[in-house]
Amino acid sequence: MPRALPYVTADLPGVGGELKAEPSHFVVEELPLYAPDGQGEHIYVNLTRQGLTTKDVCRALAKALGLSEDAIGVAGQKDKHAITTQTFSAHLPDMPEETARQLIEANLSARVNWTSRHHNKLKLGHLLGNRFRILLSRPDDGAQEKAAAVAQALARRGLPNFFGPQRFGLDGDNAAKGRQAVLGHGPRDKWLRKLLCSAYQSQLFNTWLSRRMADGLFDRLLIGDVAKKTDTGGIFNVEDPDAEQPRLDDGRITYTGPIYGGKMLWAKDEAGQRERQILAEEDIGEADFKRARLSGSRRPARLVLDELRVEPTDQGLAFDFALPKGSYATVVLREFMKSEPHAPQAD
Asked: Which of 56, 70, 79, 231 is catalytic?
């Protein structure tokens, strides 16, 4: 099972409450990386739907338009237990845009918001992030004041960018299976092996970030940290933590954590030692990741939530916030609830 995660607002009381499985209580809107320019062989279609996963929609689009599933593109994967708005692409160089729209409206249980042409197929990762509007039902007494205090604390301290529980499977054992897969004892199915290995990488990141928080270093830079500029995405090694600290404080940069792999960019000095200690304790090394063909990457460790809004309603508390791609709404909500919520996934 995944290890229990710390709260950055542990000193503040939670609001309790529950997340219901009703799609109307969990609304997700994909934030695009770029807009279609009106020309090209691919038709982009923006849809709002519920009760269908992203894969379900891809299959339905392919069938409605007479295409193979490979001709359908998408920027992120979304769960079916939500009202979701996202964009898909279809390779249709010869079909009129209006014809495609009519076929989609006739064959899919979804609302077509707009269509437009573009030059390239949408691929996973072609998004900035997601905006969430979530209703928390049955909060405790005094929830509005408690939520306001947590929101203010998150604005000052930042949010730890943990991987949420969805990453680790229904039984929570995907990371343990992933470790075996990294060591060469995983399933033969390529897709499943990749899923399990990714869960293990995610758990290692969560362990690294939990330890950093436990050591009082969540809001501090270390010598050798791999930092990332939040405006341009440029990365650099921190040589003078005191000089760079103001940029961390105001959100211009964040430090990143390890998604371990054979080609991962390691932190240096003190920060690098902390990263290598995690693997040493796991009795696993770079060579194991290379054999498993896991390249690795860096993940922002601290997020600034500058658009978080919490408002009371007659049904509970309404949350509105945006997250970068790959970040989890449940990680935001757990700071308010002081428990581990289960919610639909949006990458």
From this structure: 79
